[in-house]
Amino acid sequence: MVWFLRIGTLFGMMSFLFSSIYAIDCVVSLRHESSFSCLNEYIPDAFYIKKLIYTVPRCCDEEPLRSMLGITEECMYTRRQFKAALLSALKAKRFDSVAVHCMPVAGGYTLHLDFSAQWIFSRVVLSGIVISKERYKNYYSLNAGDVFDSDKHRQSLQKISALLHAEGYCAASVQDTIAFNEKTGLITVYLKIVLGPRFTITDIRVTSDDETALEKKIIKQLKYLRKSLYTKELVDHAAQDLKNYLQRKGYYAASISAEKELYNDTGQVKIRFAVKCGPKAICEFIGNQFFSNQELQHTMQLFGSAGELIPPLIIADEIKALYIKKGFFDAEVTFKEEHESTFFCINEGQRYKVTGTVITGNVPMHLAFDPALFFNALVGSFYDADAYKNCVDACIDRAIHEGFWDIACNEYTYKKTGNKTCMCDISFVFGKQRMLAGISVDRFADVTQSLLFAPYALLQKPLPFSLYIIQEQQQWLYSYCQKKGLLYLSARPEFTETQNGIWLTWKFVGESQPVHFGKTFIIGNSILSESYLKRELSFKEGDIWNKEMLQESLRKIKNLGIFESVSLYPCDIADKSLVKDMYLKTVEDSPLELRTRAGLLFISKNFGIRGGWSYMAGGSVVWKNPTQRADIARLDIDMSRYKHTIRGIYVQPWFFNLPLKTEYKVYVNRYDQPFVVGSRDRLYRLDQDGFLIGWARNLRYWQTGLTMGSEWMRIHKLSARLAQAIDFAPWLIDRWVPYFFVEPSFFLEYLDNKLQPTRGVMTMITAKAMVPYTLSQAFFFKLLIEQSCFIPLYNAVFAFRVRAGHLFNQQFTRIMPNERFYLGGAYSLRGYPPDLVPPLNIYNCNGCEHFVPLGGKSMINMNFELRFPVYGSFSGVVFSDWGALAQHHPAELAAGVVGANGFGIRYNTPVGPLRFDIGWKWKRQMGEPCYAWYLTLGNAF
């Protein structure tokens, strides 16, 4: 037995020595690629991986890491390939180091990779203040998703403290707490700001190298600082004002510094200004009227500290040149020096008017335009050199379009012609006119068929060669190469002289191979699984580079609604490799969000509402990414005087493995339709309870959707007499009607701007089938089609919209009032109050007669607008609205067409135009006003 133990020990020692000789152990830093050099010493040139073992931190997933490295078992690898795999881990910016254990086994090696993670900064939470939290957060240097750096953290605290001190909280302090989450590997920084008192300026002291009298004047200039709340900006502004004051007094080389003396126990601060005046040179201006003393003094201030060294003769010439530029050709400026002062006596004379412009130089006889036309607007006005320069630039720009690339204006001078009038002489040198004989494109033959190249490809006779053609085509070719993934290919023009003119050939230089997408590395502070993020990408590894794919990927990820910011960019922008790895950086928003809303609500729905206001209040609780699958759960509660709504919504971006945005909703609606706004008497109460599930497919320009569910509707507290007035079946009152509904939809939006479109089209088609479970007579199918178009006309936009709808149902009286079509209001016919387009009935309530809308089974509505700018952010609109409703058959629409014409004013805001519209009816019924006006936000369509 003892011998067996001794032999076992001997074999164990030999095995240990053998493994120690051949085992490979090293630690590689994953922060810098230079640390990979240690692998040259420990890793063989080539090795066969028999078995592969990963050890990853708790905060990382093993499967994405395996996919990212691309190392598999039962494969031969070189040292270079192994380094390339570890380089992927370095680019991920998530790992601090990897311990490489390579143990020889029969037939190869067992490779054990032990990764350690870096701490990632997630977000900063600020407390201690209520106002301007975001502004202080912006001074924190670390961005969400960055590797946590204690030095940057400390510098950020110093920046925030300095900002607080500069704002007058000179005793403020910033306390920090760093929370480490072992599960996610994220760090949250909690900052608490202790403001303390805000300091007040109680005393101002000035020391100067000049006379005591000046010090008293300076103190008088700064007296407004006393008892003011201290801020660094206020003191700096005061120092600059003081410097300007001293320069006006002739101290052009004055320098000012300010120091503060704090008294923390009393919250007071004393400011000491040290003033170095330097030599004095006083300038006085006499006789000037067109230019103020301040404007002329500014001429001296432009010289700065050298102002007192400039001879008065040069200053006089500068002042005279200012007057001549404005047409005072007879102006004279003399000067006189007395002690420290220089007096400039100005005789402005009369200002000359321009009676005409003479164009001189080698003006070509066959010139396609008259240069004098650019200066006609200046005839009869006072001479102004700046206005003439603008006209000269416009003339040169037109000449370049006509092929005169070398055009130059030698000078523009004036000649006095009479009593305070002058003629202007503009001398041009046009040079040689370039004519374009044709254009060809090297390598890409299909380019010449595009709209920008086709007109010049087969010219019958030469055309003037505009220099701007080259710029436009070069920009177009740049975009063309980018779309094909040829990022390093550029187009250069080559010119060949022929008898007919210049032949332009576009040559391509650079790398002709397309760039492909490489690996995509997920960085940031999101805890969302990489697989859920990468499935939103419109490209995959190996695809040809496409900018539109990047934009589409960003749009899809942002639409998830769980991120504060999203960015997608190459790992190394300067690297000109043909494979570009990408960084997808996501900054996750706060998981829980409470939203509140309140305001005034304009009531207008279905029946007899002429207009009025009611309160509205509500709130939402939003839970983002609750299951870490990019989902959102939301509870909405809204209440007003007449309506109460509760909605529970759960949204997922995918439906199993299909890219369909899925929404589950449960809702409870209670709506009281008042007879008159402000009255507690109701026409009826509408109850809507239901649940639904909806799928939507969102692409760049269009969206399709399908919604289905069940809904229970009931109209009650409605008298039989009123039901007859609105043409509603009395036997449906106080009766719950359960429906199964299906609603497909299609939406196309191809607009240049969603808030203020100037070009494009928009199409919407919706269909809704409501199938009751019990009452077959209440079945209906609702179809609505809408088409909008926007056409630019110079500076204006012509916009029109056509809407048409129909309800397929046997009897109009069995259609629920809320499902009928209505017209009238700010978004349909603007000459009519909301929903009050005929057909109407008259209902007598307490001795007063009121119009009650019936609605329709069929609807047609057309809107025409001409939108044009007015001034600045203001714009105007003239419009014509048409429409008709039919209760029984679409043929009734032709006889019931009504309309309104009017105008409107818009004020553009960041959230859309603030709109005022007023429209007049074509004809009115008895008792109706002839017009209606609206003030609202957003365009009519």
Task: Characterise the protein shown here.
The protein is an alpha+beta fold. The chain has 8 domains: 18-117, membrane protein fhac (Ubiquitin-like (UB roll), Roll); 120-194, Ubiquitin-like (UB roll), CATH 3.10.20.310; 200-276, Ubiquitin-like (UB roll); 284-347, no CATH class; 353-429, membrane protein fhac (Ubiquitin-like (UB roll), Roll); 435-510, membrane protein fhac (Ubiquitin-like (UB roll)); 516-588, membrane protein fhac (Ubiquitin-like (UB roll), Roll); 593-937, membrane protein fhac: a member of the omp85/tpsb transporter family (Porin). Helices cover 19% and strands 43% of the residues. The protein has 16 helices and 42 strands. The strands form 9 sheets. Strands 25-26-27-28-29-30-31-32-33-34-35-38-39-40-41-42 form a 16-stranded antiparallel beta sheet, with no helix packed on it. A 5-stranded mixed beta sheet has the order 1-4-5-2-3. It is globular. It starts with a helix and ends with a strand.
